[in-house]
UniProtKB/TrEMBL annotation:
Gene3D superfamilies assigned to the protein according to its UniProt record, in alphabetical order: GntR ligand-binding domain-like, Winged helix-like DNA-binding domain superfamily/Winged helix DNA-binding domain
Domain of life: Bacteria
Pfam families given in the database record: FCD, GntR
Limits of the HTH gntR-type domain: 17-85
Chain spans, region Disordered: 239-264
Keywords: DNA-binding, Transcription, Transcription regulation
InterPro entries: GntR_C, TF_FadR/GntR_C, Tscrpt_reg_HTH_GntR, WH-like_DNA-bd_sf, WH_DNA-bd_sf
Organism: Tsuneonella dongtanensis
Annotated protein name in UniProt: Putative L-lactate dehydrogenase operon regulatory protein
Matches recorded under PROSITE patterns: HTH_GNTR
MF annotations from Gene Ontology: DNA binding; DNA-binding transcription factor activity
Lineage: Bacteria, Pseudomonadati, Pseudomonadota, Alphaproteobacteria, Sphingomonadales
Length: 264
C-alpha cells in the first residue's frame, strides 16, 4: 500500500498541516512496527529536528498528537517515551492504519472483523427503524456502485466502503457514526485481502443486496441476519487464505462464531 495513505473519512490534512501529518505518520509507524521500542526514549528535540527536517513547533505538535493516541508520554526534563502497547488507542484509525500498512497482521485484521460482527449487524437493524428515505437511497447507491464496479467502470474498493459507511450513517446512532473512520480504515485492508482469494463475486453482491433490501423493507431481523452472514463469510475467507500456523506458534485467524451462517 502507498505510504501515508489517507482515506475518504479522514480529517482533512490541513487540520494538522502537511508537514506535521508527515512527521506524525513517520514516528507513529516507527512505534507501531517496533522500530521505536516500547519504553524507548525518543531522540532529543534537536536530533529530531535534524532527522525529520521539521521545526521544533511542528515536532511538538506531532508529539502532542501521538500522546493523545496513547503512543508516547512526554514529561518535563525526562523526555518523550514510547508507551506500552496496552496504552495505545487501537480504535484510532491512524494507529490501525500504521499497523496494517507497515506490519500487516492477519490476526489483527481477524480480530477487527470480529468487532465488526458485533457492530454492523446491529447498525443494519437500527437503520430499519431510524433511516430516512434519503439514507436508504444512499445505501442503494452504494450497492449500485458495487454492481457497476463488478462490471468495470467503478472502483470496487470505494464502492464497497461507501455501502458500509452509508449503513452506519443510516443507524443515526452517534456512537456508531464515530466508528466510520475506523471501519473504513480496516475495510481498505480487509477487502483487498479477501479480494485476493478466489470467491463467487455474484454471491457476495447478492448478500449485499439482501442487506440493502431488508433495510429498504424495514425488516430488522432480515437485515441483521444478512449483515451477519456478510461478515462471517469474510471471516471464513480469512481462514481459507491464512498460512498454516508457523513453528513459533503463530495463530491462525479464528473461525466464525458458532451458530453463524456461512457459505463463503
Amino acid at each position: 500500500m502507498p505510504q501515508n495513505t489517507r482515506f475518504v473519512s479522514d480529517p482533512p490534512e490541513q487540520t494538522l498541516g502537511r508537514l506535521t501529518q508527515r512527521v506524525t505518520d513517520e514516528i507513529g509507524e516507527a512505534i507501531v512496527t517496533g522500530n521505536l521500542a516500547q519504553g524507548e526514549l525518543l531522540p532529543v528535540e534537536a536530533d529530531r529536528v535534524a532527522r525529520y527536517g521539521a521545526s521544533r513547533s511542528v515536532l511538538r505538535e506531532a508529539i502532542k498528537v501521538l500522546n493523545a493516541k496513547g503512543l508516547v508520554t512526554a514529561k518535563p526534563r525526562r523526555g518523550t517515551t514510547v508507551t506500552k502497547q496496552s496504552s495505545w488507542n487501537v480504535f484510532d484509525p491512524d494507529v490501525l492504519r500504521w499497523t496494517l500498512a507497515r506490519n500487516f497482521s492477519l490476526e489483527l485484521l481477524t480480530q477487527f472483523t470480529e468487532i465488526r460482527i458485533a457492530i454492523e449487524p446491529h447498525a443494519s437493524a437500527l437503520a430499519c427503524d431510524a433511516a430516512s428515505e434519503e439514507d436508504i437511497a444512499r445505501i442503494g447507491q452504494g450497492f449500485e456502485r458495487m454492481v457497476e464496479a463488478d462490471r468495470g467502470p467503478d472502483d470496487p474498493l470505494a464502492a464497497d466502503i461507501s455501502f458500509h459507511l452509508a449503513i452506519l450513517d443510516a443507524s443515526h446512532n452517534i456512537f456508531l457514526a464515530r466508528l466510520k473512520a475506523l471501519v473504513e480504515t480496516a475495510l481498505h485492508f480487509s477487502i483487498r485481502y479477501t479480494g485476493s482469494i478466489a470467491r463467487d463475486e455474484s454471491e457476495k453482491l447478492g448478500i449485499h443486496e439482501q442487506v440493502y433490501r431488508a433495510i429498504e423493507a424495514r425488516d430488522a431481523r432480515a437485515a441483521r441476519h444478512a449483515a451477519l452472514k456478510l461478515l462471517t463469510d469474510a471471516l471464513d475467507l480469512m481462514n481459507q487464505g491464512a498460512p498454516p500456523a508457523s513453528e513459533n506458534g503463530a495463530e491462525r485467524p479464528r473461525k466464525a462464531p458458532a451458530g453463524a451462517t456461512t457459505t463463503g
